[in-house]
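Working notes for the structural subgroup meeting. M.R. asked for a predicted model of this chain before we commit to crystallization trials. I am recording the input and output together here so anyone reviewing the notebook later can reproduce the run.

Input as submitted:
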Amino acid sequence: MSKTGEQKAGRSIRGFDLGPNVKPPSVKKNRDASYCIHCGKIQPKNTLSPDFLVSWVYSFIEVKGPHLTWNFGTGEVISEPQHEALLADDGWLLVELGVKPRPKSMKAFLIPYRLFNHWREDTGATSIRLGKHGSIPNILDVFPNYAMVWIPDHIENEKRVEGHWSVPDEHAFWGWLESYLRGILDFVKGKSK
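Returned structure, recorded in token form:
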């Protein structure tokens, strides 16, 4: 994903809203590249872990895009360590597809990684795109219930907030989060008896 795309994705993830009494999540961005402390040369991208770690639930989110077509078979692939981490921690995939400018000709999707992985294995697909084009699957047909919504630039608490993608109330993410947190609460209650 481009630096601008990752910055917007980070703002979107930090903007996840659980209500007025809940603090936004802490989001750690895994570095794409680093500099050698000995020679100062740039080191290759860290492909061992997904792009973001979200603190509410210790869940990874891997970000891909923006692309018109995401070629995950040979293009911007998910490395084996990223794949393992996303499966182990019920990770999510944030995919932005389309052509700029946002949001007019673009869409973003927050998809459970397990669901994406099952679809990929079941169909043998190696790419996905926004819109119909030959035999390449259309993300709107494959994952219609996982679309995000665009929140335009606005003023909040007397500060300008840049436009970003947001998770709508009816999105499966919120049900997953509620179930996850309920499991933790049940575990804690069981320990206190």
